[in-house]
Request: fold
Amino acid sequence: MIYPRPSVKDHGTRSAVEGPFEPGERVVVVDDVATSGISVLEAVGRLREAGCIVDTAVVLVDRGGGADGALAAEGVALRSVTSLQAITERLEALGRIDAEQARAVYRFLAS
Reply:
């Protein structure tokens, strides 16, 4: 496992990417949530600058904020375990949220 640092420290390894890897290796970015895709794209950029090949990102939840399109424009496919829409649909089906709460989520997703 490797991980890109948000910024290079002026002590330690002084590396933008921590962990063992070889330039030219294919890596997958893993994150918890994607909305616009900005944080995933920042990680992709740091990994590519270090010589890694990045063409896939996996997130637990896609919030539906355009991350898939932003990543695709940079040659990265976004894969998600689930989406905020799917979570909302399931919660409504289970009666954990009512129709008005579900509509509020859908309005948020559409905005």
About this structure: The two ends are 36 Å apart (CA to CA). Helices lie at 38-49, 67-73, 84-93, 99-110. The longest helix spans residues 38-49. DSSP finds four helices and five strands in the chain.
